[in-house]
User: Fold this.
Amino acid sequence: MTLIVQKYGGSSVADTEKIGNVARRVAESARGSRLVVVVSAMGKTTDGLVNLAHQIAPSPDPREMDMLLATGEQVTIALLAMALHGLGHKARSFTGPQVGMRTDRAHTKARIKAITAERVRRALEAGEIAVVAGFQGLSDEDEITTLGRGGSDLTAVALAAALAADVCEIYTDVDGVYTADPNIVPDARKLGRVSYDEMLEMASLGAKVLQSRSVEFAKKYGVPVHVRSTFKSDPGTLVTMEDPHMESVLVTGVTHDRGQAKVSILRVPDRPGIAAQVFGGVAERGIVVDMIVQNISRDGYTDISFTLPRTDRDRAVAVLSEVARRIGAEGVAHDDRIAKVSIVGVGMRSHSGVAARMFQTLSREGINIQMISTSEIAVSCVIEDKYTELAVRALHDAFELGAERAATSR
Ligand code: ADP
Ligand code: ASP
Ligand code: MG
Assistant:
């Protein structure tokens, strides 16, 4: 009998009626397979909990934050198990700690170290549907941790790997992975298959349909991931190994990320060892820096700018103000009104001129590029936030990704 791990995101379980629908869908799948179901917190519950914490404390203690955030998913597992009982199914809910989801100690962005899944195995052997809380785990000090926003995707993929499931199905409010966020680009096209590498790049560059760490995990353990709609039965997008049947296009998708901030250290003395001090201070606090730009030095001084997750901005500015004083820089500035737009595609490996076309497209729309970075299969530009939609649509057109175009040319 096949073993399937299904994950239902927040919008799929936003109210009791929707939980009832999910229960019916799960019950249908349970006919021919053994099932593990991972769920998120209901609707925007996690955002609400984050807000509550910030009303109490400007920078809440990370341990207590995880204690708070983990409650969201626990509500959904119990309600879904009850709904399944109502349909005559045997089902049992489990928290992350109960299924042996062991993580490191990095509160609010913990990494998975091991999964025993013993309780899940026992439930499956007893013919039960196992309903597991996404997003949460337990550190080796027995503290509750969470896996970063969107982390239920990771719970699902990790359980699928641990149990050697046949597939991990991610049910969400769109029916697959599109060439761009379909909520921004009406003409976006659903991809039938996408490689782990492309999906990883798209997810890390802002396509939040899958959490990037879940894709990393899926690639590492070869878990086939099927992204599909909770509300429709159409097949979605298969995230899998690169294969010759995938379309050989230059650019696969356009992504955007509005969750970043730009931080600059101004008038830094231009001498060896300075960058090491600046980034060493940030790295020691576990803050991941993304794009970095250092200007040409004019009179022995230079500016260094970089981007980072907006949620880490205050901590980074605090550390850097200290570093700036120590190294004799003028000060630290930050800007939240930025967005990163990117084009992604394995086809770029063997083609030149892709970046140039991206820059021309943005220039034609009168959009100034503040920072640029490239990888083997992506090019990203930081622009002013208010141009995000315009930029994404223009790039989607320029690389001919739209559904209309595809119908005639592919
Ligand atoms: P869930 O609550 O189910 O985890 P998310 O909100 O995390 O769902 O992810 C689904 C959303 O991802 C979609 O509503 C869509 O707006 C967004 N998204 C961004 N980029 C893409 C893309 N390339 N393809 C599909 N969806 C995308
Ligand atoms: N509830 C968590 C979040 O909103 C985890 C998830 O939904 O994947 O980030
Ligand atoms: Mg999500």
